[in-house]
Design goal:
Helix content is about 20%, strand content about 15%. The protein contains 5 helices and 9 strands, in the order H-E-E-H-H-E-E-E-E-E-E-H-E-H. Strands 3-5-7-8-9 form a 5-stranded antiparallel sheet, with no helix packed on it. It has a two-stranded antiparallel sheet with strand order 1-2. A two-stranded parallel ribbon has the order 4-6. Strand 1 (about 15-20) and strand 2 form a beta hairpin. Mean pLDDT is about 85; it is low at about 195 and about 200-213.
Length: about 210
């Protein structure tokens, strides 16, 4: 995965966002990992001297790579992403601070990315879900939580494993899986095998092929 390539290169995962001198989010992790997804041309077009919605960077919003949208929706001229981080002091994404692999106790059950529908986050926007205010229920596809157009919402764990979550997982278990030090009661959280076509590595490879044509 791109975040692991980023970690190998920089010794840590990307922060949720890069902030300006006043602490305001300027650039998203989704932009930072482009250079590790064979998206260097798009990465090089991005201007880190201006905010994500500055005069140059806002021209890139409608060029969202297909791996940031649900499989099957990539033909749409969309700019809103379906893949988010969960940002908070207890999660892998500690605002503008980076996390290292060794900071995570249970990498196989600690969530790194989630699926989401309805949040309205542009792919370049340095905005994701906030741990302190999100919904931990999977029952009703909350726009401020883990949600999906598929039967079982997909997540990616810190170790790179991609799997689905049963809708009846308790909010307590989901909350624990989002922290860097999940409790012992999530050692077997009830994950499920994903149907074909939702392997994120396959999605990334397809996007790389498109970008090199």
């Amino acid at each position: 995965m791109a975040c692991h390539n980023y970690h190998e290169n920089y010794g840590e995962f990307p922060p949720a966002y890069i902030a300006d001198a006043d602490g305001r989010p300027m650039h998203s992790w989704r932009v930072l990992i482009l250079e590790f997804l064979e998206s260097r041309e798009l990465y090089q077009q991005y201007d880190f001297s201006e905010p994500w919605d500055g005069p140059n960077n806002r021209l890139l919003i409608d060029q969202m790579p297909r791996f940031y949208v649900f499989p099957g929706d990539d033909s749409q001229a969309a700019s809103e992403t379906n893949y988010l981080a969960v940002v908070g002091a207890e999660t892998v994404w500690r605002h503008d601070q980076s996390t290292r692999l060794e900071d995570v106790n249970n990498r196989g059950n600690t969530i790194m990315f989630i699926e989401n529908r309805g949040s309205g986050v542009a792919w370049t926007e340095p905005r994701d879900l906030q741990f302190e205010s999100m919904s931990f229920s999977l029952a009703d596809d909350p726009p401020n939580g883990i949600s999906s157009k598929f039967d079982k919402p997909a997540i990616a764990a810190v170790d790179g494993t991609v799997f689905g979550l049963e809708r009846d997982l308790t909010a307590t278990t989901v909350r624990a899986m989002l922290t860097r030090s999940p409790d012992d009661d999530v050692d077997d959280p009830g994950v499920v095998e994903l149907p074909g076509g939702r392997d994120m590595e396959q999605i990334e490879r397809g996007a790389e092929e498109d970008l090199t044509k």
